[in-house]
């Protein structure tokens, strides 16, 4: 009897507190106690065939800022540019901390960039962005290495030409080219015949992580996963440990070589991320050291950069070429522009051409809008009482720029379902309203690298090849609309015909 009474009282308090909170927060469907809006979210995702269309349904019904209770906690999504800018840029200092999925927090131990908060994360983020900027501006390491990578991989492709056609499993081609480029920027080694096995090993580990990157795995307590779902737990563990061991070994070997005098660090010209880190670490050590500049921190940062940078870029390239072969008139207009600018393809496209390739820029923007790689963006917590659109938020309230919902927002992108690069030429403002790399203090730390990759890859491949579908057109619809991240169709192949 006492048990039933206590349970009823606790339940009544929870319901009362939830009702009070609902009144203060941005609108949304009425939540149930404990399970919140999960039934409505599941139903609308089923009805509209995906999480993003379900978000769009809630946005249309409740406005650009809406609340969904995921279990007992309210989660606020913002699906327009102005409010996101106001919250995450102008007021961004309040939203630096991510809600860390327990399993990743457990593996990363407070280090790295993706699943960390606090001073070590902030310092590593500053350092990473500065290092990438230095590699892009002035010294142009990024451009040189990527153009070299494109040359070498295209030469390999050309060797497989039969009857004037090269049949390409394009997602695998983009995974290899992106993996090799990122590896060369981070640890100074591209993938060639002698170390190709290492690339396949990394791919296998990343695929394992992607398989368990579901809403279930990212919200469940570690002990539950460990004891009741040991295979899922092992998959995450093997993935994170395997990748961090691979990049960590490269860093340790470099350190040994530096100590033994076999390798000399050039302070003015670091050749990759590891070099830049050791140069900074040496400087910090002279001043008593900094907890962000340790081998452990380097290992986890490299791990995060590899995993965050690889699939996102490869998926955008795959999704983009799927769109281009479905929209041949766009492909032709890009090529016409590229030919004009490079004097009929007599030189490769360079980053310096960006101001002249207006149509290519618009096409890449439209590709990124459709590719919009995360169905659900990572959640941030607010660090103190603040307001969003006039609503009062408390410390710990959960919020995000819901990028996927913003990119299908018909009020911003008219006929959002259509693939139409011209929309960006007709209204330049749309370039700012597009936020494929997120916004604010937790936006993508590799944006610079990714933009370099997308521009040079799309531009130079379209200059070299006429790309056609092979046997069937790839689909441009989302393959796994119920998972956290998007996966483009890679069931088909493409034909590359040399120009
Ligand atoms: C087309 C390619 C890419 C896209 C579309 C993309 C997009 C994103 C998005 C949407 C986020 C989350 C933003 C948020 O939480 O609000 C993110 C975070 C991140 N990205 Fe990227 N990304 C790409 C490539 C890269 C590359 C090449 C790297 C590095 C090599 C990278 C490193 C990171 C890191 C470290 C974070 C976490 C930043 C933090 O929490 O402080 N990304 N990215």
UniProtKB/TrEMBL annotation:
It comes from Caenorhabditis remanei (Caenorhabditis vulgaris). Its cofactor is heme. It comes from the Eukaryota. Gene3D superfamilies: Cytochrome P450. GO terms for biological process: organic acid metabolic process; xenobiotic metabolic process. The keyword Membrane does not apply. Pfam families: p450. The lineage of its organism: Eukaryota, Metazoa, Ecdysozoa, Nematoda, Chromadorea. This is Uncharacterized protein. GO terms for molecular function: heme binding; iron ion binding; oxidoreductase activity, acting on paired donors, with incorporation or reduction of molecular oxygen, reduced flavin or flavoprotein as one donor, and incorporation of one atom of oxygen. One of its GO terms (cellular component) is cytoplasm. Belongs to the cytochrome P450 family. Heme binds at residue 444.
């Amino acid at each position: 009897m006492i048990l039933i009474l206590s349970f009823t009282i606790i339940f009544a308090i929870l319901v009362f507190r939830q009702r009070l909170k609902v009144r203060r927060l941005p609108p949304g469907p009425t939540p149930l106690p404990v399970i919140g809006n999960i039934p409505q979210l599941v139903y609308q995702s089923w009805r509209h065939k995906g999480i993003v269309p379900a978000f769009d349904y809630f946005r249309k019904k409740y406005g650009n800022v809406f609340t969904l209770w995921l279990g007992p906690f309210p989660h606020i999504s913002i699906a327009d540019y102005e409010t996101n800018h106001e919250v995450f840029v102008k007021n961004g200092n309040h939203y630096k901390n991510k809600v860390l999925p327990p399993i990743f927090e457990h593996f990363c131990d407070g280090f790295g960039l993706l699943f960390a908060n606090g001073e070590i994360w902030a310092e590593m983020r500053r350092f990473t962005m500065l290092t990438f900027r230095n590699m892009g501006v002035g010294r142009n390491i990024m451009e040189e290495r990527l153009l070299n990578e494109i040359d070498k991989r295209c030469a390999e492709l050309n060797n497989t030409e039969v009857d004037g056609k090269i049949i390409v499993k394009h997602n695998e081609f983009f995974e290899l080219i992106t993996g090799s480029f990122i590896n060369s920027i981070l640890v100074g080694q591209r993938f060639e015949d002698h170390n190709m096995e290492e690339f396949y090993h990394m791919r296998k580990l990343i695929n394992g992580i992607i398989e368990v990157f579901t809403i279930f795995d990212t919200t469940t307590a570690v002990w539950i996963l460990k004891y009741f779902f040991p295979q899922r737990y092992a998959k995450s563990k093997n993935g994170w440990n395997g990748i961090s061991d691979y990049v960590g070994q490269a860093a340790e070997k470099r350190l040994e070589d530096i100590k033994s005098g076999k390798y000399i660090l050039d302070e003015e010209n670091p050749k990759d991320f590891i070099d830049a880190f050791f140069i900074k670490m040496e400087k910090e050590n002279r001043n008593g050291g900094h907890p962000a500049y340790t081998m452990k921190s380097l290992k986890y940062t490299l791990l995060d950069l590899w995993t965050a940078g690889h699939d996102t870029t490869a998926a955008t390239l795959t999704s983009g070429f799927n769109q281009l072969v479905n929209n041949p008139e766009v492909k032709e207009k890009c090529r016409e522009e590229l030919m004009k600018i490079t004097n009929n393809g007599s030189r490769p496209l360079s980053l310096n051409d960006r101001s002249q390739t207006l149509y290519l820029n618009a096409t890449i923007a439209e590709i990124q809008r459709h590719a919009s790689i995360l169905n659900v963006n990572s959640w941030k917590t607010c660090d103190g009482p603040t307001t969003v659109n006039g609503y009062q938020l408390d410390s710990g309230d959960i919020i995000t720029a819901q990028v996927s919902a913003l990119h299908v927002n018909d009020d911003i992108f008219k006929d959002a379902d259509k693939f139409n690069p011209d929309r960006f030429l007709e209204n330049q403002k749309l370039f700012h309203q597009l936020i494929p790399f997120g916004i604010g203090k937790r936006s993508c730390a590799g944006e610079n690298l990714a933009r370099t990759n997308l521009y040079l890859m799309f531009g130079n491949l379209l200059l070299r090849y006429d790309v056609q579908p092979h046997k069937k057109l790839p689909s441009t619809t989302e393959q796994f609309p119920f998972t956290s991240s998007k996966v483009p169709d890679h069931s088909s192949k493409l034909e590359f015909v040399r120009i």
